Amino acid sequence: MYTSITGRIASTILALGLMSVPAVSEELRYAHVGSEGDIQTQYAAEAAAGIGEATGGDVTVKVFPASQLGGVAEMVDGVRLGSISMGHHDFASLARIVPDVAVFNAPFIYRNAEQALAATDPETSPALQEINAKLVEEGGVRIIGRIYRGARHISSNFEVKTPADLKDKPFRAVPLDLWVSMVKGFGATPTPVEVSELPTALMTGLVVGQENPLTMISANKLYEVQSHVAMTGHMHSVLAVFVNEDAWQALSEDNRAKITKVLDEKADESLRWAQESEAGLVEELKANGMTVVTEADGLDMDAFRTPVLDQIRADFPDFAPYIEQIAAVK
What is the 3-state secondary structure (H, E, C) of 253-314? Predict the structure, then answer.
């Protein structure tokens, strides 16, 4: 009886506007595999702070970097199931849900960094909007942002100028089908290795080479186990920021718009960070003993481009219409 009476009193007071119920902040668990010093880690930390500020604390974001909640597969599964609210990684990490999403990581498909960022804008890219609808329907996951990490380059324990230099050598592939295909195009033997295990794999000779943006090579101190960088720029590294659809829809429309705005602004900033840091990173890697090989030194880009694109077309024929849409983006 007491509970019933006090409950009615509270309801009456609330109806009269004499008592308010404090707002409950929505916390999003944000996971990624990036290490300290990488652009993606800076992005996640600043995006989390920006979202909290933009929503007035209605939405808070707790970031779990450096594979704290598992590797790529565990992170994607966590977002699908809702145990992780959001995360980021290469678009191809979502290919287990919708295979064609990997097209946004395909090598040699973007004209430059600016076009890569424009072609992966969830708000304006026709190709991404089409694939995003499939991700929501088939996996309960939505892409809501992107990160530009820089162009990816080949690093190795020897000089690389053409695919012949990599022929049949064990080369690290991101554990995703697209990377396996690309490494085959390099002429090497694809050897899937998680990023957290990469320094050890290079040190022990499990793999003799890998490819990543210069930021990652620097942040993970791969110069300690590698001697050369070939400036192939074969892939513009754009990462997808994705969220559990139920968690996304549980937010107010206003807060979703504010989050999208923050992520879009941070995407533009990530492009600036990458472009401003590349020249300095080249000098840093040289200072740490790495030899940087460019086209001026005999690096043959056409020798890489042709076999890699041929391999991608053979392994992923369904990419063709999306590649056309991407090419049309200004």
Answer: HHHHHHHHHHHHHHHHHHHHHHHHHHHHHHHHHHHCCCEEECHHHCCCHHHHHHHHHHHHHH
Least Cα distance to 24 among 242, 252, 241 occurs for 252
Mean pLDDT of the chain, nearest integer: 92
Burial per residue of 187-225, b for 16 or more beta-carbon CB atoms within 10 angstroms, e otherwise? bbbbbebebeebbebbeeeebbbbbbbbbbbbbbebbeb
Percentage of the chain beyond pLDDT 70 is 93
d(CA 152, CA 160): 15
Mark 244-260 as b/e (b = at least 16 C-beta within 10 Å): bbebbeebeeebbebbe
Distances (CA, A) of 117 to 105, 129, 179, 181, 316: 12, 14, 20, 23, 22
Residue 98, helix vs strand vs coil: coil
Dihedrals phi, psi of 273, to nearest 5 degrees = -55, -45
Asked if pLDDT for residue 197 goes beyond 60, the answer is: yes
CA distance 45 to 24: 22
* The pLDDT of residue 21: 41
pLDDT tens profile 225-249:
999 999 999 999 999 999 999 999 9
